[in-house]
Design a protein that fits this description.
210 residues, alpha+beta, Glutaredoxin, 2 domains, seven-stranded mixed beta sheet, two-stranded antiparallel sheet, 26% strand, globular
């Protein structure tokens, strides 16, 4: 083998090593979702009123339900939110704080809350950084026509024009229940958005009876 051939093989070997290392780092970066028993991450973001929201003000002090969802004013997300709304009294009676998180902006959240009379906090995670702390998969953002899916009517602005909601990222639907000790009691990928609050309520009732 000539010196030229040896040099060529060295370049190929180096390139392969770099690609393999990059692949390993990419795999490492794609963290798995947190599981039962894991410590809940500390984070800060913006709430639906545009104010700073700190997890340290809640975690370790009460039971906290943090549910991630794809987009405001869409079918499954509306039914999931309305489920938590309808079960809010039962959850509040057990000292539970419910927090919804998506890649929507604070203004999107305000509209969502107004249309469906939601009484719990929604957090804006426009870059997906909060979701990633929980290991929840994040995809590219998008936009939807603001619509009340329960009445099948588009939502318009003061000029009568349809409103389009844009979101920074699209987060997969996962719900986490965090105990007073700051550890995950339940982590699950939501299969039925409309029944999520009922499933969570059963878990919390089981925990509070112990």
């Amino acid at each position: 083998m000539t010196s030229l051939h040896k040099a060529a093989w060295a370049v190929v070997f180096l390139a392969a090593s770099v690609l393999a290392a990059a692949g390993a780092e990419e795999k490492k970066a794609a963290a798995e979702p947190l599981q039962k028993g894991d410590k809940a991450p500390v984070f800060q973001t913006t709430d639906d009123q545009g104010k700073a929201w700190k997890s340290t003000d809640y975690l370790g002090k009460k039971i906290v339900v943090i549910y991630f969802y794809p987009a405001d004013l869409t079918g499954g997300c509306t039914r999931q939110a309305c489920g938590f709304r309808d079960d809010m009294t039962k959850l509040a009676d057990k000292g539970v704080e419910v927090i919804g998180v998506s890649g929507d902006s604070a203004s999107n959240h305000r509209l969502f809350k107004k249309v469906h009379n939601l009484k719990f906090t929604l957090l804006a995670d426009e870059d997906g950084s909060v979701a990633k702390k929980f290991g929840v998969p994040v995809h590219k953002g998008g936009e939807v026509k603001a619509k009340n899916v329960l009445t099948d009517k588009l939502i318009t602005n003061d000029e009568g024009k349809p409103i389009t909601l844009k979101r920074g990222v699209t987060i997969e639907r996962w719900t986490f229940v965090i105990g007073k000790d700051g550890k995950i009691l339940l982590a699950h990928k939501v299969a039925n958005a409309a029944k999520d609050s009922k499933e969570i309520l059963k878990v919390i009732e089981g925990e509070t009876k112990q």
